[in-house]
Amino acid sequence: MKTELIGTVFLSEKRKSILLMLMDGPTTIDEIKERLTGTSSAIMTQIKILLEQGLIEHNDHEYNLTYIGKIVVKKMQPLIETLNVLEENKGFWQNRDLSPIPFELLDRIGELGDVMIYEPDLNHLFEPPKELLESLQRASNVYTIYSYFCPSCPMNYSQLAKKGTNYNLILTRPVYDRLKNEYKDEYNTMMQAPNSNLYIFDDTSVKLGALSVTDDLMLIAFFNKDGVFDHKKVISFEKSALQWGKDLFEYYRERSEKVTNP
Predict the structure, then answer these.
(1) Predicted structure pTM score
(2) pLDDT band for position 261 (50/70/90)?
(3) Which fold has domain 89-258?
């Protein structure tokens, strides 16, 4: 029975799609056929298998999940979401150092959803992606972490401060020192802004490249397994990814020291 259920759920994309579809509530056969590709007979064959395995039932011209079906689908959805994130860019994820992500958030990596991998060319290597810059312009809340120095970022920081954006920034000690000593005007603007909060993360053994979360975008960058930062970045616009990014930011904020004096 154990093997049968696993095969029923994972060995057919149509069965998997039907189960996930029914998570939203009872669905008619016509609605199922509209959302799936394939012939009616092929779809009905998969529905029959799900009925026989006790994962779905048919009542009043609608199909819905049984109690067993609800249990199974609730457990399978996070796994499917995780596999979708990792398989789409398998080579990228295999080469990343993911140790800066705490286990509880690594376990939720499927929440990143539909992601794009940003790879800048040599002419734009140290510039933030245009998607991030555009998002910063319209954002009311911004959460950012940097462990490397971005030459254009001090100006971006100070512009957000001047606009009154609720801006929270975590920097490693070397990046903070460079910002304070080499970009004094931008630093002072940030420190004087009532809605800007600056923190220092001193644990040099942890290397998260960068994180930015706005109202509609989440960006994260990792070092590779050789400890090299290659400027590749993950970008997602999913609501679940925004919350994931905020939770990661909060994890590091709790371990950082707030800067209180300019």
Answers:
(1) 0.80
(2) low
(3) Endonuclease; Chain A (3.30.870)
